[in-house]
Specification:
mainly alpha; two-stranded antiparallel ribbon; 4 helices; elongated; Copper transport protein; copper; membrane; transmembrane; copper ion transmembrane transporter activity
Amino acid sequence: MMHMTFYWGKSATILFDGWRTSTWTGYLLSLLALLLAAAFYQYLEAFRIRVKLAAGGGYKPTSIPPPASSDPARAPLLAPAFAAAGRWPARVAVATLFGINSGLGYLLMLAVMSFNGGVFIAVIVGLAAGYLAFRSNDGEDLVVVDNPCACA
């Protein structure tokens, strides 16, 4: 039976029918694996951001040419995209890292959807520990990586 509310206990099915825990040892090892996977998620995100910045994909206010006139409708919206067209290997690498990281994030979400309280706590603690270890000093709040628009 699948739980639809949070429950506590050592018996849990995590992601696959083959990943069932029935002993405390198996349960605690599963929680450790989820905690490490969540920390690895944060590591991959930090690595992707570093690769993107190293490839020159970060937002630089001087990289966007000023509009030719004061009319905002005539601003060159596609100029930054065309300027980055020569960096295809770096863009493919960043997109690949984004895909892998997104897949891992969805797997962690599905693990939390087992509604086991220990699984939920392990994933949250892993994300927080990974953020502290890999991303807390990268200045991500000061650098806009994906989109210079504040509304996106």
